[in-house]
């Protein structure tokens, strides 16, 4: 079973969201997603200041198996990027909920957080075979 921390919110696209500070969330991919992708060899992230709507693709992760898009879980503006991934993209595999985070977003509509899955909701979602 995948590691699904209970303090996070999740999307059906396998991103996680953690409130980093008031109005700002940190985003990454779940343990389940990194296991499905395999060894990540490259992360393409957006420019700082880029704006996205919830559900928009904001970047890609390239693994030995495939290239997959990652999606903004909430609407807002990118305020920080995990530049460490430029040299060490494998951090996404090693620590998906810690050093493997992708971006931070200043949220434009906090109510969007309410539409995300809880840990139990996400575990149920992946246990039903939703890849």
UniProtKB/TrEMBL annotation:
InterPro entries registered for this protein in UniProt: 2-oxoA_DH_lipoyl-BS (IPR003016), Biotin_lipoyl (IPR000089), GCV_H (IPR002930), GCV_H/Fam206 (IPR033753), GCV_H_sub (IPR017453), Single_hybrid_motif (IPR011053)
Cofactor: (R)-lipoate
Cofactor remark from the record: Binds 1 lipoyl cofactor covalently.
Domain of life of the organism encoding this protein: Bacteria
PROSITE patterns, sorted: BIOTINYL_LIPOYL (PS50968), LIPOYL (PS00189)
Record has Transcription regulation as a keyword: no
Keywords: Lipoyl
Modified residues annotated as N6-lipoyllysine in this record: 65
CDD domains assigned: GCS_H
Leader peptide range in chain numbering: none
SUPFAM superfamilies: Single hybrid motif (SSF51230)
Residue span(s) of domain Lipoyl-binding: 24-106
Function: The glycine cleavage system catalyzes the degradation of glycine. The H protein shuttles the methylamine group of glycine from the P protein to the T protein.
NCBIfam families: gcvH, PRK01202.1
Sequence similarity: Belongs to the GcvH family.
Alphabetized HAMAP family for the sequence: GcvH
Subunit comment: The glycine cleavage system is composed of four proteins: P, T, L and H.
Protein name according to UniProt: Glycine cleavage system H protein
Source organism of this protein record: Streptomyces kaempferi
Designated gene of the protein: gcvH
């Amino acid at each position: 079973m995948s590691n699904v921390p209970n303090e996070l919110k999740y999307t059906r696209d396998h991103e996680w969201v953690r409130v980093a500070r008031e109005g700002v969330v940190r985003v990454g991919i779940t343990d389940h997603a990194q296991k499905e992708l395999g060894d990540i060899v490259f992360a393409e992230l957006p420019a700082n200041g880029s704006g996205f709507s919830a559900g928009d693709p904001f970047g890609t992760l390239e693994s030995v198996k495939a290239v997959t898009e990652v999606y903004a879980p909430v609407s807002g503006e990118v305020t920080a990027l995990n530049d460490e991934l430029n040299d060490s993209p494998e951090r996404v595999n090693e620590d998906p909920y810690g050093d493997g985070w992708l971006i931070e977003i200043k949220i434009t509509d906090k109510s969007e957080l309410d539409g995300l899955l809880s840990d139990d909701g996400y575990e149920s979602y992946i246990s039903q075979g939703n890849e």
